């Protein structure tokens, strides 16, 4: 099977796209053409794929990226059996003649509008109706994959859910340490960036440092740089997912201090599963799915939204109790290995694409009756 995969919004090494789905396709023996903003993100495409470079769609000015995407998609689908797109923007750039098309729905697009600080108020009022119309139209014209079961409420059909899980090591990771916190993922105000900076300030006298691993929104980059210059934390910027998770191993705990906004409310933060997979306790705000998993497995601490004092106290208690850290890390690892190992879900992903890539047989014509 020849698969064309496209994004102009996500980083080319996005964990779901590159490290999970494309890796699963390659491991299953399929060929991949990948349309992504390689140059913009300073990424060298792996030799195993056919890469088509496009500009990245950023902020309000996306016309150039869309125009380039139209040309790239037309080229990329020429001999493809299936087209897999990851951005709602690409629904506006699909070639007229194309193979079976699949849209992988990553997020609650309407719920995420509050977190997109670059949007003017007028756009935030208009976009929900536009997004709903595009989702409805896409549902009628192509196959959908959902990253969360909660997204089903936005659609009429019963679309398959391919959860955003992670690779869980076959052997248990190192024990959690006692002097380093870690955060893996994109950094923004809604994801708790400002609380983490203040947390680092309060914990520095206790000899506990904070490692932030991920790209950041423009509005929080200055304060992150200032905190790093003051020696409060280490901000590494974007790091490919597999390397980032190795950096998380051995930390005292992993942070997931997301705010209570619609885009996060019904989703499972992948970072929670990633921390569990790497054998470290999770400190999370009480988003329903995160709190449910962490509470059920007893593999971390649930703290109130925006409460830096509560987070600092939780960190110090874990620091002072290495046995509790080790037990939480082991419980999280076992839960992740048993329920959230990506290869267990990759089989369903591959099977869906293989099924959809096969053209439906033409209806049999009635046999002529001899005169």
In terms of topology, how is this protein built?
Layout: E1 2-6, H1 15-27, E2 31-36, E3 50-53, H2 63-76, E4 82-85, E5 100-105, H3 121-141, E6 143-146, E7 180-184, H4 193-203, E8 209-213, H5 221-229, E9 233-235, H6 241-248, E10 253-256, H7 262-265, H8 270-277, E11 282-284, H9 288-297, E12 300-302, H10 308-319, H11 322-339, H12 342-357
Parallel strand pairs: 1-2, 1-4, 2-3, 4-5, 5-6, 7-8, 7-10, 8-9, 10-11, 11-12
Helix pairs in contact: 1-12, 4-10, 8-11
List keywords for this structure.
globular, 12 helices, 12 strands, Rossmann fold, 371 residues
Short account of what is shown:
This protein is of the alpha/beta class and 371 residues long. The chain contains twelve helices and twelve strands.
Fold and architecture overview:
The chain is of the alpha/beta class and 371 residues long. The protein folds into 2 domains: 2-165 and 343-357, Rossmann fold; 180-340, Glycogen Phosphorylase B (Rossmann fold), CATH 3.40.50.2000. Helices cover 39% and strands 14% of the residues. It has 12 helices and 12 strands. The chain has helices spanning 15-27, 63-76, 121-141, 193-203, 221-229, 241-248, 262-265, 270-277, 288-297, 308-319, 322-339, 342-357, and strands spanning 2-6, 31-36, 50-53, 82-85, 100-105, 143-146, 180-184, 209-213, 233-235, 253-256, 282-284, 300-302. The strands form 2 sheets. A 6-stranded parallel sheet has the order 3-2-1-4-5-6, sandwiched between helices. Strands 9-8-7-10-11-12 form a 6-stranded parallel sheet, with helices on both faces. Helix 9 (288-297) links the parallel strand 11 and strand 12 (300-302). Helix 1 crosses helix 12 (342-357), helix 4 packs across helix 10 (308-319) and helix 8 packs across helix 11. The protein starts with a strand and ends in a 14-residue tail after the last helix. The mean pLDDT is 91. Keywords: Transferase. Pfam families: Glycos_transf_1. This is Glycosyltransferase. Residues 179-333 form the Glycosyl transferase family domain. InterPro entries: Glyco_trans_1.
């Amino acid at each position: 099977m020849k698969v064309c995969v496209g994004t102009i919004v996500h980083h080319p090494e996005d964990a779901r796209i590159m490290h999970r789905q494309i890796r699963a396709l390659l491991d299953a023996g399929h060929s991949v053409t990948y349309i992504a903003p390689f140059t913009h993100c300073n990424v060298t495409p792996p030799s195993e794929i056919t890469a088509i470079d496009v500009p990245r769609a950023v902020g309000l000015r996306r016309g150039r990226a869309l125009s380039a995407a139209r040309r790239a998609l037309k080229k990329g689908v020429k001999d493809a059996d299936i087209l897999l797109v990851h951005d709602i923007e690409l629904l506006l750039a699909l070639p007229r003649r194309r193979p079976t098309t699949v849209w992988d729905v990553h997020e609650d697009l309407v719920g995420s509008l509050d977190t997109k600080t670059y949007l003017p108020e007028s756009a935030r009022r208009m976009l929900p109706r536009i997004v709903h119309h595009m989702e409805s139209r896409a549902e009628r014209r192509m196959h959908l994959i959902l990253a969360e079961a909660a997204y089903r409420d936005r659609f009429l059909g019963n679309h398959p859910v391919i959860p955003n899980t992670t690779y869980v090591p076959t052997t248990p990771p190192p024990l959690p340490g006692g002097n380093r916190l870690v955060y893996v993922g994109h950094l923004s105000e809604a994801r708790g960036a400002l609380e983490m900076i203040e947390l680092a300030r309060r914990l520095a006298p206790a000899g506990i440092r904070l490692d932030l691993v991920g790209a950041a929104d423009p509005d929080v980059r200055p304060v992150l740089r200032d905190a790093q210059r003051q020696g409060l934390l280490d901000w590494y910027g974007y790091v490919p997912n597999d390397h980032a998770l190795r950096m998380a191993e051995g930390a005292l705990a992993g942070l997931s201090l997301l705010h209570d906004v619609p885009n996060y409310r019904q989703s499972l933060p992948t970072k929670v599963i990633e921390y569990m997979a790497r054998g470290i306790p999770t400190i999370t705000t009480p988003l329903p799915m995160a709190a449910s998993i962490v509470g059920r497995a007893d593999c971390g601490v649930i703290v109130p939204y925006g409460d830096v004092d509560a987070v600092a106290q939780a960190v110090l208690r874990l620091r002072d109790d290495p046995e509790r850290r080790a037990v939480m890390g082991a419980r999280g690892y076992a839960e992740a290995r048993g329920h959230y190992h990506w290869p267990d879900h990759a089989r369903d992903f591959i099977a869906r694409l293989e099924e959809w890539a096969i053209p439906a047989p033409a209806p049999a014509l009635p046999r002529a009756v001899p005169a």
